[in-house]
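Entry 14. Ran structure prediction on the chain below.
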Amino acid sequence: MSFMSEYRSKLCSADEAVRLVKNGDWVDYGSNNGYPSTLDAALARRRDELHNVKVRGNLLRGPLAVVECDPSMEHFVYDSWHCSGYERKLCDAGRAFFTPMLFRDLDRYYRQYLTVDVAMLSVSPMDENGCFNLSGALGAERGIADTAKKIIVEVNENLPYVCGDPAGTSIPLSRVDAIVEAGKIPLWEMKSPEPSDIDRQIAGHVMPQIPDGAVIQLGIGGMPNALGELLAESDLKDLGMHTELCSDGYLALFKAGKLTNAKKTLHPGKGVLGLAIGSQELFDWIHENDAILGAPLSYVNDPRVIARNDKMISINGCLNVDLYGQVASESAGTRQISGTGGQLDFVTGAAMSKGGRSFLCLPSTFTDKKGQLHSRILPQMGGDIITTPRSQAATIVTEYGAADLTGRSTWERAARLIDIAHPDFREELIRKAEEQRIWLPSNKR
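Output, C-alpha cells:
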C-alpha cells in the first residue's frame, strides 16, 4: 500500500478521531504549537459521555476546550509540565495541576513510568518519506508517540518543518491511527519585549564575560530573550546556538551576523534546538533550514551533551535568590509561575563545559500592587520552590553587578550577593546575614 493510500485510509474528521478516547484514559497534547486545537474542541464535545479523562501538556497558549467546558473537573483533568501564562491562571484557580520535572528527563518519564492511551499532536503535512514532522514542539513528543497506544495527528499546514534525525523529529505514518486535516491554523506567536533600562544594565554585566565563539543558551522568558537581542548589538562574533528554546533572540543574532555556529565543537555549522516559540519571522527562518538541527530535549538538555560545547554560556532568568545562593525561578511561594524546565540542565552542563559559564539574571527589586518596593535578593527563601540549588548556583547578575558564587563559602556568598542587591536593602540584608551567622565581622558595611 502506498503512502497516499494508507494516508487516505486513516483520514477522518476530528469528531470521528476522538472516539478513540475512553473513560479513564490518559491523553497527551504535547507542547506549544504542537497543541491540537481542533481535536481538543472535538474531545470537549464528548464531555457528557466521558469521565476521568486525564490530559497532559505544557506551554499551551489556551484556552483549552476540555478545561473550559468542565469547571468541576468531573470529565477532564488537566496537568501541565511547564506553565504558560494561561496554564498558570488555571493552576491559580484550582482548574489544573502542575507536575514537577526536568526537561532532560521527560522523555524517560514517558518511556519508563507513564501511560499514554491516546496521543493527540499537531504536526506539519506528511513528507515524501511518509513522516509527520513535529515542528518546533520536539520536547518529549517522540517519546510520547513511541509509548502511546493510539496516535491521532492533527495536520496544520502552517507549522514549520524542522530538520533533524527523523527518529527524533517525526512520526511515521505506520504508527498513526487517525489523521485529521486542520488546514492552516494560526501559530502561537510570542515576541520578546523591548529591553528595559534594567535589562540593558544586566546585559552590560554579562556581555564582557562572553568570549567570541561562545555557544549561547537563552532560557524561557522576557529577560533572556531581551538579552539575546542586546547581544546582537554587541561586538561579539561567531556565536553558536545550543538551546532548549529557540526564540526571536536567536533570529536577531543571526540577522546581525553574530550567529554563525562556525566555532562549535559539537555539531559545527548547525544551531541546535528542542523547542521554538516566537514570531512568524522566526518560524519562517527555521522552516526547512538545514543549518538548524532539531532534537528531543532528552538529547538537547543532557548535561553531558551540553558540555561537549566548548565555551557554553547559559543565560537564564530567575525570580529570587537568597544569601545562601538558592535560586527560585518557577514559583512565588507555592504559587506556580512556570516550571523547572531546563534551567538546571543548562546550569549543570555549562559548568561541565570547557570555558563554560552560567548566568542567572534578575532585577534587584520588584514593586507590588500596593506600590511597595521589595528586594529579590532575600536573607533566606520563604517557601519559594528551589529551582537551582545552592550547590550548583553559578553567577548571579542584577543591574548592580555580577556575583560569581562558584566554590564560595556562605559568608563570601552573602557578601557578594549583598554587593549586587539594591542599595536600599543592603543594611537590612547585612543584619539578617549576621543573625544567620553567615556574615564575617570584618566585611565592609
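The chain is about 30% helix and 20% strand. Will compare against last week's run tomorrow.
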